[in-house]
From TrEMBL:
It comes from the Bacteria. Keywords: Metal-binding, Transferase, Zinc. Its cofactor is Zn(2+). The keyword Metal-binding applies. One of its GO terms (molecular function) is metal ion binding. This is 3-keto-5-aminohexanoate cleavage protein.
Amino acid sequence: MKKSPKVVITCAVTGSIHTPTMSPYLPITPSEIVDAAVGAAEAGASVIHLHARDPETGKPTPNPKLFMDFLPRIKQQTDAVMNISTGGGLKMTLEERLEAAHASKPELCSLNMGSMNFALHHIAPKYTEWKYDWEKGYLEDTKKGIVSNTFEQIERIIVEVGQAYGTKFEFECYDVSHLYTLAHFLDRKLLKPPLFVQTIFGLLGGIGADPEDMMHMRRTAERLFGDDYLWSILAAGKHQMSLCTMGAIMGGNVRVGLEDSLYVGKGALARSNAEQVAKIKRILNELSLEIATPDEARQLLDLKGANEVGF
């Protein structure tokens, strides 16, 4: 692992997992996403991971016009790196998932490294009333669906976004096999180090959130990539802060945000993304770990620079 002299904090501000019923603080409209992103950056995040939502219903959408509504406005107010999702949302086609990346030509995109049973159906029984009609079915359908990221699809994203625009990737690895898939593309020289490897824990269908699960992912990444990667930790729900803290102590970077957890503490909904960023920054500072600025993150991740994007 290429050890970072400072910790890069990523904040994923809305995502495509949680639905509006689950929290009144989940950013929905472009203006809410702008406020969430700017607030997270001011709190200490150097990378902002972004999805779009239908401003009328809160449903995840690939609509590039919505991305291009909030991206320039965020850029005007902060120098944070903007990381655009190519995972999109459930049932989106690959073409839909790539629309925002083609429109924005960003410095950084997410890239899921394997197909998986991305299960959310177990969340639905927790709610008896829904703010919007689409929410319950959206979650329940994950019991019979699969999130597709085939080798062909991954290669297309690498070529059509990475090679075409000089965009780098946050490689999202939900299981050990995803690390081996990433190694396959590195061995084929379709990718160049440093790799930004985001190991993800605690989602049903992926690897668990036990500390030993995290250690196994790290050991595997060390064996496959050596000094050619930067490690980051994302843990879902209640595991967010504890695993991020553990990983940071071991030299990793961290990701927080309302995409990954709606809470800031046991039973306490986070009122903003900035609240989660401030909490992990406070923990890291107490451990004598320094936080990377956006420009330091760009240097660590070997990004092309904010002046080379399409917005």
